[in-house]
Amino acid sequence: MFETLLDEFMPAEDLREYLKKGVISDSYMADIIFYSPVPVEKKRKALLELEQMDFPEDRKLFKEYWIKYRPSIEEALKLRRTKDAIFIVYEQTIYGDDVDSEEWMHGIFSSYAAAEACIKKDIKEKKDEEDQMSWYEINLWAKGDSDSYVDTCTYYYIDGELVYTEVELGNDFHESCTDGELRIPVSYKPGDILIADRYPFGRKEKFVVLQIGDNRDCCCLQALCKKADGTWEVGAVKHGMIGSIGYPRVSVLYTAKKYEPDLSDSEDTILAKVSEMVAGDEKRGTVIWDEMCCGKNDEELMTILDGIVFSIAEQTADN
Question: Burial of 66 by CB count in 10 Å (0-12 exposed, 13-18 middle, 19+ buried)?
Fold first, then answer.
């Protein structure tokens, strides 16, 4: 039913094909569209198409919630025409292996069109620059009741395209679309090693799946990942809580794919060890999860894993 929409809004091939085979609800499809790193005009049209579909009863889920996605986008697009306002252009750039972005203010403008033109011009001038990732933000401040201006809406540009809009909270309904969330069923199993690209909001992340749970709950998909500071932690993948967490961010589920570890690399060696230990058994993944109460370095994690291996061997011998 959603095959065409999945082709357009779910770049991860394995997950996309899995979702096509299963029965997903209108709510899951709406989330995939809303959070996707796709231009907002395509999202607006797709959400309208979704609203007009005739769903079987078993696919209707939380429509009263997701039905507000499109109006939120349309309000943001309408606000671009605000007359008594200022539009501030920021460039956010991540250099080399850095985790945090550096912010540059390019100017303050009296119209959205002028602010957007500034972004287009800067992208053109920097098209040959390498070893960096950038995105741009237009921050709209509208005239308030007094002589002050109110932070009203933020527009995010990726590769020159308007991809996300966020009307500031305090209005009727506005879900953040840049918090890395995506609560959908997945095709993975415990022990799978995956790699995902957070472009342009971050570098690639490698992680190993520990738990799948019921494959529906927002916290059920748990994984182990090494952060940029060298420590290992577990987190809820659907909530975007893995790896080096920053904002804004896009869900790793949009780009996650199976990864073959390079055993000459220390990080990959640990990922491979965990994968081999779990071997599709969620109970084993849960044992590792229970031991990861806080960040561990490579040596500390290997000590934990060796202890778990020894414990499993003892249990096997007793049986």
Answer: buried
Backbone φ and ψ of 41, nearest 5°: -65, -35
Q: Which amino acid is at 182?
A: L
Element (H, E) at 103: strand 102-109
Nearest one of 307, 300, 288 to 230, comparing CA atoms: 300
Strands (E), 213-304: 222-226, 232-236, 257-258
Q: What is the pLDDT of residue 22?
A: 79
Task: Output the CA torsion 291→293→298→302 (10° steps).
Answer: -10
CA 70 to chain centre: 19
Q: Give, as one character, the DSSP assignment of residue 171.
A: B
Question: Residue for token digits 């071997």?
Answer: 279
Domain boundaries, the chain: 3-68, 80-167, 193-313
pLDDT at 245: 74
The CA distance from 302 to 318, in Å, is 24
| Cα–Cα dist 206/267, whole Å | 9
Tell me whether the omega of the peptide bond preceding residue 261 falls within 30 degrees of 0, making it cis.
Answer: no
pLDDT along the chain (319 residues), means of 10: 93 95 86 95 95 72 78 93 96 88 95 97 88 94 89 95 85 67 93 94 93 91 92 92 83 96 95 95 92 85 84 54
